[in-house]
């Protein structure tokens, strides 16, 4: 049983990776708004399928680079977050270094702009904060993201790199988001649609907290946090529905 909770145990890594990808490339607002920009449903389906294929080869490339860097340096004392930058600065010729830095900057700008647009849209439409314009909300979230990017300077990641730390943070919230999505697709999750807003908010709000406690208590990998979050949100929603029905019957 201890093996089940160790970092990156292969079966749990596969399961957690699939569910995490479902959250980030299926129900995440940043990805959904790109799908909504397609001309038709068939175009949206083609975009999602092609994105999945592209991301698969993208991760094969990333993992291959990591393996090659591991065999190139063979020095475990080098911080994980500095290996690639060390290789670029010391081993890569100047013209190629410029292309690599430009590609990294372009990728970061693309992700940041999509994140800012998603946060601004959610703030304006879902939270119904309409007294501020889109430009003001975009500026606000841009400043928030700028400040949050400085947090790693004050965090002690231990043996984890920044990439794993970032995936761990996102795993706390992906579980309830997937549960909401499943409530409209799978019959066993339909009951969540019957929850009143207050009970649904309680289930969704408690899930990341319980997931955080679970992760700290077991010391498990972030790949386990997503399935735990889905199961926790399902159990919380089911329990709260029973309480809601009992309160309704007593009136």
Automatic annotation (TrEMBL):
Record-annotated membrane-spanning stretches: 6-27, 48-72, 92-112, 132-155, 167-186, 198-215, 221-241
Pfam family, one: SSF
Membrane topology recorded in Swiss-Prot or TrEMBL: Multi-pass membrane protein
Entry similarity comment: Belongs to the sodium:solute symporter (SSF) (TC 2.A.21) family.
Chief place of localization: membrane
Localization: Cell membrane
GO molecular function, one term: symporter activity
Single GO biological process annotation from the record: sodium ion transport
Protein name (database record): Transporter, SSS domain protein
A GO cellular-component term linked to this record: plasma membrane
Keywords, in A-Z order: Cell membrane, Ion transport, Membrane, Sodium, Sodium transport, Transmembrane, Transmembrane helix, Transport
